[in-house]
Design a protein that fits this description.
Glutaredoxin; 5-stranded mixed β-sheet
């Protein structure tokens, strides 16, 4: 009996140690935050996020949330996916803080429920806050005085040129549907349309894995690669039925659809799809 109790005590102690060690690793490796980000490029973790804010030379917006918070996912879906909100929040570095793990951050900022937003300097000093779910219009109203504190405004500004470097891989993409189709006609080549957005993580992975694969790059040498901004070129999205990202469409030089694929494709899967398109072109 004593031996049994000793073993049970030891097992409980080991479980307790394991549980205390798991949350940090879980926050880094195991949790799916894809439904919490909307169109914002969040950095996960307070310390890492404030480092990025310092590098960006911007204040940070802390989104203190949990994986199980339904109002948090709705805030992401409705508000963090709203183009006007996304544009206004470009003045901040977005940081996602796991409220189940970063208890010290919750205590520091007086967080007792989710979702909670804190607007902080790169050193972590708070100067503004919002609590609970806010639809886009109410969010923008609440954001206005916070922006005034940092000398920003909601007045229209020229759109900064978008950085597509993480979406190109090793392919010489032409950016823009109209410009790309003109180039295809000049090249007398069929077209690979890559319909994407700057905030699409799977699009970047497609570029990193597949569009950087030497065999894929070689196989696509007979095509004109065209990158289409799904946030801007809505007509092209509608024309080719792109309802999510990444979306790939293979066209002849006149714009006739030859093949399509939605979502991420590893190099082997992409090459199989491409083979079918090439067979159509050879007929």
């Amino acid at each position: 009996m004593n031996l049994t109790r000793c073993c049970l005590t030891t097992a409980v102690a080991l479980l307790a140690l394991t549980a205390s060690a798991e949350p940090e690793a879980e926050a880094e490796n195991g949790k799916d935050w894809s439904h919490h980000t909307g169109k914002l490029d969040f950095t996960i973790g307070l310390a890492k996020g404030l480092e990025k804010a310092k590098a960006d030379k911007k204040p940070a917006m802390l989104f203190i949330t949990t994986t199980w918070c339904g109002w948090c996912t709705r805030l992401a879906k409705d508000t963090f996916s709203n183009d006007e909100v996304v544009k206004a929040l470009s003045a901040f570095t977005p940081v996602l803080v796991d409220g189940d793990v970063e208890k010290a951050a919750c205590q520091k900022y007086g967080v007792q429920g989710f979702p909670n937003l804190r607007f902080v300097t790169p050193d972590g000093e708070a100067f503004g806050q919002m609590g609970g779910y806010l639809p886009p219009d109410k969010f923008m109203t609440a954001l206005k005085p916070i922006l005034e504190k940092i000398g920003a405004s909601l007045e229209a500004k020229p759109e900064p040129e978008k950085d597509w470097s993480a979406h190109l891989g090793k392919l010489p993409f032409t950016v823009g549907y109209a410009k790309g189709m003109e180039k295809a006609k000049a090249d007398k080549k069929p077209v690979l349309l890559f319909i994407t957005t700057t905030w699409c993580g799977w699009c970047k992975k497609l570029a990193e894995d597949t569009f950087s694969n030497e065999e894929v790059v070689k196989a696509l040498s007979g095509f004109t690669p065209v990158l289409v901004d799904g946030d801007v070129d809505k007509d092209a999205c509608e024309k080719f039925g792109a309802e999510g990202y990444p979306a790939l469409r293979f066209l002849d030089a006149e714009g006739t659809l030859l093949g399509s694929s939605d979502g991420y494709s590893a190099p082997e899967e992409f090459l199989t799809l491409l083979k079918g398109v090439q067979e159509k072109l050879a007929r």
